[in-house]
């Protein structure tokens, strides 16, 4: 549980080299969720920093403070890196990533060393990553694609540039810094790439751009290719070690998720688990070295999702059922066609709506609920919860605060819609297609009466929020996220205000502050140049920190 920086990379590499497995705990997660992960994983030790020591409940004797215990750590005998042999076997667990779970609790995926080594070697070879490269790391460790950012460059002696937490969340600062950075490789979700362009980034012919986590649209592919980037589209669930397919995108008219990566097999199977002909849709199943060991403490679910591989003669080989739909193209690439079930992908994060619904169901004032993702505007996917009241009438603000206390921010719905009853199909199942769209152009959700914007800055801010959220009558005590905003929209709001005022606010302030508080922050600021930021560099085993 560490802030972004050199210590984070050192901790990951050190744990892996020791033969132990690491469990990333995001400091931004609710304490209840972190507590579950600590208990479920049975952590032997917590590696953290003094400022974060209280985030996860682990006894002090099992806590290593990289800053507070620095003197004790410095007194330990040094071991030359070249002499420290890796004390782990290929099938030993390297890390445990917790993903959203349909039962209401997250599930830990056990990922072995074998799949990581195979993938890193494949990516280094295929993307032509060399010792002269610099790869930017901007992704939270709790998202498995961060493993690529940390380990891929180090595999070939290249450089990792780790953006600190503030810079990683500020697309405008990144857009201003990238042109002179010397960065030659960067991966991001399509949403983050889009925000970089919106923040003024012009692209670079020197950058190998990797995109994953969400479908790549022809529009974004065209922008990346037009900016001169070499573009790669990658796909894979956490359960098969980050990426299972990939391919270079040469034209926005021919986007696919590519071909299987090295030591990986892709099968498109029908309902009888028989291979589908080329061009016929089916479910994507994945086998090979990247398949995880299963779910921690979830034997039944592991047996359901990881089956014996009927197409492999290798002892113990498993096949993972992704729940994704796809089909083979005649060129040997796989086309992704969405989900077979209700699992969602929002801004790159995999979400089981059942986990959110289970949280809502634990309240007596909620009788029924269903959560879906809606894309009522191109590129703007939002979580919407539809709630049928139970004992009493729940307030939207109270429901959102309740969810925030138990779920990561990316799992809290942007809209909560109250219904007398859920629409049903003739078979008695919830008719998700009949769920109403949250009213566009409606007034802000019901809340305690408060004043309308009074100052010029408050009026500007209310106008920007209203345009982005498609709302009218925004008041000074309203909160951007309570009105349906999310992190990407918050960045758009910051950029729009900078255009109007010449001032740039850290978008994180919008998470908890009201419109009046945000406007006051703008009034107290001076117009400023874009932040250059502090970056942490890791190069060829040499660690150093410097101002960029």
Give the strand tally. Answer: 26
* SS-derived structural category: alpha/beta
Based on the coordinates given, report the CATH architecture of the domain at 344-438. 2-Layer Sandwich
Distance linking N and C termini:
25 Å
Describe the sheet with the most strands: 9 strands, mixed
Helix content: 25-40%
Oligomeric state of the chains present here: single chain
Give the full name of the CATH homologous superfamily of the domain at 344-438. Answer: ANL, C-terminal domain
> So what's the overall shape?
globular
Integer-rounded radius of gyration: 24 Å
CATH class of the domain at 344-438: Alpha Beta
* Secondary structure tally, helices: 15
Neighbour order of strands in the largest sheet: 11-10-9-8-7-5-6-25-26
Mean pLDDT: 86
- Using the coordinates shown, work out and report the CATH topology of the domain at 344-438: GMP Synthetase, Chain A, domain 3
Query: Unreliable runs, pLDDT <50, ≥5 residues?
Result: 440-444, 529-534, 540-548
Report the sheet-strand fraction: 15-25%
Can you give me a brief rundown of this structure?
This protein is of the alpha/beta class.
Explain what the structure shows:
With 548 residues, this protein is α/β, with parallel strands linked by helices. Among the domains are: 1-85, no CATH class; 344-438, ANL, C-terminal domain (GMP Synthetase, Chain A, domain 3, 2-Layer Sandwich), CATH 3.30.300; 449-527, ACP-like (Non-ribosomal Peptide Synthetase Peptidyl Carrier Protein, Chain A, Orthogonal Bundle), CATH 1.10.1200. The chain is built from 15 helices and 26 strands. The chain has a nine-stranded mixed β-sheet, sandwiched between helices. Strands 12, 13, 15, 16 and 17 form a five-stranded antiparallel β-sheet that branches. It has a three-stranded antiparallel β-sheet with strand order 3-4-14. The longest helix is centred in the last third of the chain and has 15 residues, at 487-501. 42% of the residues are buried. Residues 440-444, 529-534 and 540-548 have low confidence and may be disordered.
């Amino acid at each position: 549980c560490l802030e972004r920086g050199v210590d984070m990379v050192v901790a990951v590499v050190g744990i892996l080299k020791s033969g132990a497995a690491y469990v990333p705990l995001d400091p931004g997660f609710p304490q209840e969720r972190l507590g579950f992960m600590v208990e479920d994983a049975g952590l032997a030790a917590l590696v953290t920093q003094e400022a974060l020591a209280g985030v996860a409940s682990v006894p002090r004797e099992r806590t290593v403070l990289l800053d507070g215990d620095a003197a004790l750590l410095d007194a330990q005998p040094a071991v030359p890196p070249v002499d420290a042999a890796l004390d782990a076997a290929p099938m030993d667990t390297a890390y445990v990533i917790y993903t959203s779970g349909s039962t209401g609790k997250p599930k830990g995926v056990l990922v072995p060393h074998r799949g990581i080594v195979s993938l890193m070697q494949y990516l280094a070879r295929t993307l032509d990553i060399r010792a002269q490269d610099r790869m930017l790391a901007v992704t939270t460790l709790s998202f498995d694609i961060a493993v690529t950012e940390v380990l891929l460059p180090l595999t070939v002696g290249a450089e990792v540039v780790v953006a600190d937490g503030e810079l990683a969340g500020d697309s405008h600062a990144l857009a201003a810094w990238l042109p002179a950075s010397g960065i030659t490789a960067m991966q991001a979700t399509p949403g983050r790439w889009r925000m970089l362009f919106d923040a003024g980034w012009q692209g670079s012919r020197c950058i190998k751009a990797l995109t994953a986590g969400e479908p790549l649209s022809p529009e974004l592919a065209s922008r990346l290719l037009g900016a001169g980037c070499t573009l790669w589209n990658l796909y894979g669930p956490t359960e098969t070690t980050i990426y299972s397919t990939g391919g270079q995108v040469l034209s926005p008219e021919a986007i696919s998720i590519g071909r299987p990566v090295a030591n990986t097999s892709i099968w498109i199977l029908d309902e009888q688990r028989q291979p589908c002909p080329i061009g016929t849709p089916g479910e994507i199943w994945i086998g090979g070295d990247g398949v995880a060991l299963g779910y921690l403490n979830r034997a039944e679910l592991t047996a359901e999702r990881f089956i014996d591989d009927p197409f492999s003669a290798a002892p113990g080989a498993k096949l993972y059922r992704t729940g994704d739909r796809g089909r083979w193209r005649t060129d040997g690439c796989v086309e992704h066609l969405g989900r077979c079930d209700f699992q969602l992908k929002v801004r790159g994060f995999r979400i089981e709506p059942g986990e959110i619904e289970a949280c809502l169901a634990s309240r007596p004032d909620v009788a029924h609920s269903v959560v879906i993702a809606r894309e009522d505007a191109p590129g703007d996917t939002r979580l919407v919860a539809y709630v049928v009241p139970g004992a009493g009438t729940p307030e939207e603000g109270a429901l959102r605060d309740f969810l925030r206390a138990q779920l990561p921010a990316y799992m809290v719905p942007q809209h909560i819609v109250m219904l007398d009853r859920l629409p049903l199909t003739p078979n008695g199942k919830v008719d998700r297609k009949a769920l109403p769209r949250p009213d566009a152009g409606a007034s802000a959700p019901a809340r305690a009466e408060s004043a309308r914007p009074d100052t010029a800055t408050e009026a500007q801010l209310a106008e920007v929020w209203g345009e982005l959220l498609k709302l009218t009558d925004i008041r000074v005590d309203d909160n951007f996220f309570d009105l349906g905003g999310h992190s990407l929209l918050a960045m758009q709001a910051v950029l729009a205000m900078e255009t109007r005022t010449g001032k740039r606010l850290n978008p994180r302030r919008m998470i908890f502050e009201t419109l009046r508080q945000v406007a006051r922050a703008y009034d107290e600021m001076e117009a400023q140049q874009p932040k250059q930021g502090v970056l942490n560099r890791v190069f060829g085993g040499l660690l150093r920190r410097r101002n960029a």
